[in-house]
Structures are given as C-alpha cells and as structure tokens.
C-alpha cells in the first residue's frame, strides 16, 4: 500500500467515524414522536428583509422596530460589515441588506455604524459575490436599491423607488 492510499484509508475511516458520531447525536436529540426541537439561529438577513417587507406593506408603524435597529447594531462587526455566518470576515450582500434596513429604520447615514458599513461595502463592492441577489431570479432590484440607499445623501428630497416591474413601484421615502 502506498503512502497516498494509506492516507486515503485513514481519511475514510475518520469520515465514517464523523458521520456515525453526527448520526448518533441527531438520533439522541430526537423526540420519541420523531421530531427535533432546537434553537433556530440566523444571520441578520432575515431581520433586514423583514424591515423591507414591513416598509413595503406599510405595517412598520405597528411594530417595535427600534428593537430591530438595536439587534442590527449588536451584530455589526468591528470591520463595519455583517456576517453571513460566524467568522466569515463580513459578507457584502448581508452588509448591504443590513445597511438598507437601518436606513429604512431612519438611521442617519452619518451615524458611525452606517459610515463603517458604507466603507465596508465600497471597499468590497468590486468583488464578485456569488451570494448576492443579482444572481437570484426576481431579485435584481436589490443592488440598485442599495446604491440609491448608499448615495441618498446626494439626492436630498428625491423619492427613491424600487423598480415597478418587481415590487409595484413602492415609494421608500427620503432621508
């Protein structure tokens, strides 16, 4: 047996042990009725999208959205971005969504959190991001919206609109 074959055999044995350990863990945490009950964790994208939806539906006034702003601030990383998963170094798409949500919540673009986020986005804006919504069917409105949101301080008093072919010409207001 060659050294490469030996390594492959050891790697497969480790893989088999890892799979068995994970199966045992999952089966041990399963309820007798056949389901699992565990804490669900997410990144800030779900929260940011909820802000966008409440803005579109006009239902944000009846929700405690100030708590959302606090949540987003808490999860912003030192580099100015937000992460898609723990320790990823910051994700462009996730950061654009969180930035947009904070703007929709009324956070001033000069706020230190948004200034840091803006720098994060601009610094990484030329990098292709396979997770970004431009690749998702029906979601190509996100990037232009993010650009408008980022540069809204240049257009005081101008109405910002999501393209009508995607979201029926929803006005997002100014500021």
Outline the structure in words.
By secondary structure, this protein is mainly alpha-helical. Helices cover 51% and strands 0% of the residues. The chain is flat.
Helix content: 40-55%
3D shape: flat
Mean residue pLDDT:
76
Strand content: under 5%
What's the multimeric state? single chain
Gap between N and C termini: 70 Å
Which radius of gyration do the C-alpha atoms yield? 22 Å
- Estimated structural class: mainly alpha
Q: Spell out the helices and strands N to C.
A: HHHHHHH
Biggest sheet overview: none
> What is the helix tally?
7
- State the low-pLDDT regions, or none: 132-141, 151-175
User: What is the number of beta strands?
Assistant: 0
Supply the key terms.
disordered C terminus, 7 helices, mainly alpha, 175 residues
Short description:
This protein has 175 residues and is mostly helical.
Topology:
Blueprint: H1 3-28, H2 44-57, H3 66-75, H4 92-104, H5 112-124, H6 142-150, H7 164-167
Helix pairs in contact: 2-3, 2-4, 4-5, 4-6
